[in-house]
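Hi, here's the filled form for the chain we discussed.

Project: internal
Contact: R.S.
Residues: 702
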Amino acid sequence: MCGIFGYINYLVEKDRKYIIGTLINGLSRLEYRGYDSAGIAVDGDKENEVFAYKEVGKVAKLKQLIDEAKPDLNATFVSHAGISHTRWATHGQPSRLNCHPHRSDPTFRFTVVHNGIITNYKELKALLESKGEVFETETDTECIAKLAKYIYDQNPAIDFTTLAKSVIAELEGAFGLLLKSVHYPHEVMAARKGSPLVIGVKTQRKMKVDFVDVEFSDSAPLPAEQASHNVALKNLRNGPQNTLAPPDKSLLHRSQSRAFLSDDGMPVPAEFFLSSDPSAIVEHTKMVLYLEDDDIAHIHEGQLNIHRAGKSGGASAIRSIQTLELELQEIMKGKFDHFMQKEIFEQPESVVNTMRGRLDAKNKKVTLGGLRQYLSTIRRCRRIIFIACGTSYHSCMAVRGIFEELTEIPIAVELASDFLDRQAPVFRDDTCVFVSQSGETADSLMALKYCLERGALTVGIVNVVGSSISLLTHCGVHINAGPEIGVASTKAYTSQFVALVMFALSLSEDRASKAKRREDIMDGLTRISEQFKQILEQDQAIKAMCSKFFHNQKSLLLLGRGNQFATALEGALKIKEISYLHCEAVMSGELKHGVLALVDENLPIIMILTRDEIFKKSLNAYQQVVARGGRPIVICNEADEEFKNEKCEKIEMPTTIDCLQGLLNVIPLQLIAYWLAIAENLNVDFPRKFPRTLPGRLNAHD
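And the returned structure, exactly as it came back:
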């Protein structure tokens, strides 16, 4: 997904070197999201001048371009607004011209950076071209800057907030954007609709309150022509305004934010950091405010005002300023070579964080605070529908069986894109569970809105606090896995798995017949972290195995059955997206229905054969593969007698309760994917053609 970062300083003197460095560093923190070009816009040396630098490729190339341009880095600014962006091409090829920031005209009267897709950009472009505007890029974003310029030209007296509302009222689609203008120096408008934005706040004095009031307007913004006409009428009635007369408050900001005023009512020196991801902000400040959909934030004169067009409609009247629970070292690689490797090895801790304060193993109790008020309603529902994409979909598949067993409620697991394509029936007595690492997965968000419109109860299982899914669902659980920087999701999968198992345990706590089974599962959860550590000790052995068996291979089969089919699906996805090796997950029971034709002594096969109730059935598939000359690598339990005398290569797993075995079995598959990619000298954290979250209607891998 594209990345946004902005920096505004007010009465805090900074030189251009610091400002550019802050913007470049912010973009570097967003590199994991996937992008093909980057750019920044800062104030120039003269009044109403903007310096914009844009480059195709990595942020390092952008920094090199700026160094070659040799701007005056010693120029100082008491107040300044800079914006920057990393772009994943959706409209137009990666090029300097199509790269953000985009401008309204050659003098950069309005400059914008934007995440998402404007679905009605063609109509806006045609309208603006008929008004004489000339477009220079292939992007949908350029129409935002040109629309702002057009509205301003119609009414030069318009204030920045009203102008931004007028622009946003015309936009359709999903977006997060920052807008700056030479007509409103040192100010930035930020807007969110379906694409995340967070604002970091840093003040030299303690803020008076820990929230910002939301300013609602009872009517939609006036068209530019009508607003201009009203100003003219006011001047005709009252004549030129006497400078000693009380100011016309309708032409001023309607309120001042209480959080950013000193005791004498004057604004205090402040810095603001705007980003599409809080990981880019944490090194500057931990005081953050998450914008909600349809929020329009105005940063000016050391203040932050939040506006919403139209009436409140039940929306909260404040936005809390929260403390960011994130440490800088969490988004650094530390001793590891890649973020993916680091996150694989963090799983013993991340699953503990998911369970902390929720699983009381001693008293055999699970407490999920975010669901407590809704558990009785969910227990009475007609069915539970899990809706997700990619890795999150696999975590839902992995727990489907235990949900059916413990709750005895019909369970459906849906891919969000297919669910939407079919316009699947949803009823008021359904519970729809949306699982997403980022909480911003585009198809899952559209499916969520679809279910809300039909009156279903919605539950969010997400990792990112303040994400769209966490805000829009009725209730939910944060998996607390910590930031996941690598594109290939690893620790989020295992934390989602654990969170969903705890969800099933909570729903079944009133069932006496399930008490023993629930206790066994809780005991198994308490041992998971240590068992992860035990498996990770095989890291180098798995690396050697990859070199021996998979070198120069073009295809790979992964076989699993029952609960382990979801494990096979997840492992195959990891291998495909990171190592670019074709890998197909096949349910072992379907092997004889065509897939056996592929099996010979040359095809690499991994079979998941850990013990469970259907182990004998899975063993039949193993015998069929061996009988046809196949040489499978077997993931089995430690010292399993069944494979003691077999000549096959084995990866031995600790034994746990059957419904949790998939948690352990996925770890070696993550390591195999990692080492296969390393062997091919591939960029593990930034696989080709693959953003972390895609905007608009494109599927997001999560």
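Let me know if anything looks off before we file it.
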